[in-house]
Amino acid sequence: MTRFGLPGVITACLFDLDGVLTKTAVVHAAAWKETFDDFLRQRDGPGFRPFDAVADYDEYVDGRPRADGVRTFLASRGIELPEGSDDEPPQLQTVRGLGNRKNLLVLEKIRTQGVEAYPGSVRYVETVRAAGMSTAVVSSSANCRDVLASAGIEELFDVRIDGVVAAERRLPGKPHPDTFLEAAHDLGVEPAAAAVFEDALAGMDAGRAGRFGAVVGVDRVGQADALRAHGADIVVQDLAELLEAGP
Q1: Nearest Cα to 231, choosing from 217, 247, 213?
Q2: Which of 66, 146, 184, 197 has a C-alpha 20 to 30 A away from that of 175?
Q3: What is its EC number (predicted)?
């Protein structure tokens, strides 16, 4: 028996933010590309190999905490940088400096372009809440609350575990399952009674590692096979597809 495309035992839904709820994944990818391309151009000259905003973003950056994304991508190119401090100036070539540069670019793009939620995702969240399920947003972004407010969907979630909360509670980010597990705990449900909704490969890994009752992959960029390979039980292009399964 299923409800809204999920096993009948599911009573809580844990949603990633960028790419699942809001159309901000493309903004993040563009900010990462600008950041890394500037760095690589300075380091390697005009013949540098650019950051791929699809392949490199999906494999090394998407879904990870900001500093982890910097380290993982640089490691793929055989590059090591000093760590730096949390308040590192964005022009410095350190892990934290590059991360802070990317964050400034994202905030500027969000400020000038605004934030839009996926209508199908909003309808899905509203529907499962009306049916009595609890909901949480789980994101590595430190800007999660501002994005939710800008998109007008902050009130749709009972719990928010984001980059700020994860730092306060010393939770490792995706692909570790800890942030999703913390959301389930705060909602008062066991992992087996919760479903994870993710578009990132690192998020798929986290959902599978946490032994959640269902892991839903949201394929916005044509990576359905990769999402399944990383643990998705079901893959959809939009959450509204799950509503066709009925209550």
Answers
A1: 217
A2: 146
A3: 5.4.2.6
Q: Catalogue all structural domains in the chain, each as residue range(s) with its CATH number.
A: 2-23+115-243 (3.40.50.1000), 26-113 (1.10.150)
How many Cβ atoms are within 10 Å of 237's Cβ, its own excluded? Answer: 14
pTM for this predicted structure? 0.81
Fill in the DSSP letter of residue 215.
E
Q: Given the DSSP bridges, would you call strands 134-138 and 159-161 parallel, antiparallel or unpaired?
A: parallel
pLDDT in tens, the chain (247 residues): 578 999 999 999 999 998 999 988 888 899 999 999 999 999 999 999 999 999 999 899 988 889 999 999 999 999 999 999 988 888 899 999 999 999 999 888 888 888 889 999 999 999 999 999 999 999 998 889 989 988 999 999 999 999 999 999 999 999 999 999 999 999 999 999 999 999 999 999 999 999 999 999 999 988 999 999 999 999 999 999 999 866 6
CA distance 100 to 108: 12
Active site annotation includes 238: no
Choose the catalytic residue: 16, 58, 68, 199: 16
